[in-house]
Amino acid sequence: MAVNFFTWNVKNNNNSVFYTDLNKELMLQGIDILVLQECSMKYPITNLSDFDEISEFVAEKGKKYVRVFLNKNSKIAYSYPVSYLNNKIKCLKIKTNNGNEFNIIGVHLYSKVGKTSSNQDLDNLPVRIHIDEYQSLVKNDKTVILGDFNYHPFEANMLHPKFLNALNDKHLITALKSRKGRAFDVKYYYNPMWNLLGDFDYQTGGYKISGTYYWVPKDIKDYPWNLFDGVILSPEIMNELDMKSLKVITKISTNELVKSIPYTLSGSLLNYGHSDHLPIKFNLNII
Fold it and tell me: Residue 142's CB: how many other CB atoms inside 10 A?
């Protein structure tokens, strides 16, 4: 069966119409699991009428960092709800209606805002420890990590063996299995987001958006488009990703999320009133 995912940093959007439109779009796309970041809308979000929020996470301090919802009609059960890293990581064990089990880990990792890259890395250092801890707790290594990573796929911390250790090549991961050094032997994860870098759409032959967060660079080392949001998969589940389904979403209902050309010379390229991030969707063919 296919399980359909959708993740979005909604930047504290408290407009009820926004969530009504989002609910319609999610149902149109058959989304089963929804993960939101920076969602400060009061619980329950009645405008997400076709989704149930994971109740165990609702009362937690800092719950707006990551909120997880399941489609009421998807017949998906969950267990072992656990939070880590000041509630910036939310973990669930999922069981589908045909008995398949896997973990979802929703994240909103610390950003570079107001800190150096080194300090950002230190803040996020426990992430891999918590992921390994949760997999040991539920005795299941099939894991989907999704949300706002606040890192490009190619940044050092995403590749570091003490962090996510996430490569862009499934064949290498299958062959090598882990990154080995004198003092470590760490399992690889798969990061398919590398495939969304660049503006050429290999499915349509046309143009596509090349990131999820846009800001006019203030420094020569900065990028206008940033691919901060996405999904990372453990090797036990990476082959179940439908690669053609992995997309950056640029339209919700009738609302265009990206401004038209000519692009702005300052600030964000995304339309005010929705978010400063673009959402991601993808499907897993759970077998």
Answer: 21
Tell me the two tokens of residue 115: 């800190």
Each residue's pLDDT tens digit in the chain (287 positions)? 799 999 999 999 999 999 999 999 999 999 999 999 999 888 889 999 999 999 998 866 655 789 999 999 998 999 999 999 999 999 999 999 989 999 999 999 999 888 888 999 999 999 999 999 999 999 999 999 999 999 999 998 899 998 999 999 999 999 999 999 888 899 999 999 999 999 999 889 999 999 999 887 777 777 889 999 999 999 999 999 999 999 999 999 888 898 876 555 566 778 767 899 999 999 999 86
DSSP H helical segments within the chain, as ranges? 16-28, 117-124, 127-138, 156-159, 170-176
Q: SS3 string of the chain?
A: CEEEEEEEECCCCCCHHHHHHHHHHHHHCCCCEEEEECCCCCCCCCCCCCEEECHHHCCCCCHHHEEEEEECCCCCEEEEEEEECCCCEEEEEEECCCCCEEEEEEEECCCCCCCCHHHHHHHHCCHHHHHHHHHHHHCCCCEEEEEECCCCCCCHHHHCCCCCCEECCHHHHHHHCEEECCCCEEECEECHHHHHCCCECCCCCCECCCCCEECCCCCCCCCCEECCEEEEECCCCHHHEEEEEEEECCEECCEECECCCCCCCCCCCECCCCCCECCEEEEEECC
Side-chain half-sphere CA neighbours of 126 within 13 A: 12
Instruction: Answer whether 35's CB lies under 8 Å from 15's CB.
Output: no
Nearest CA to 43 among 59, 19, 23?
A: 59
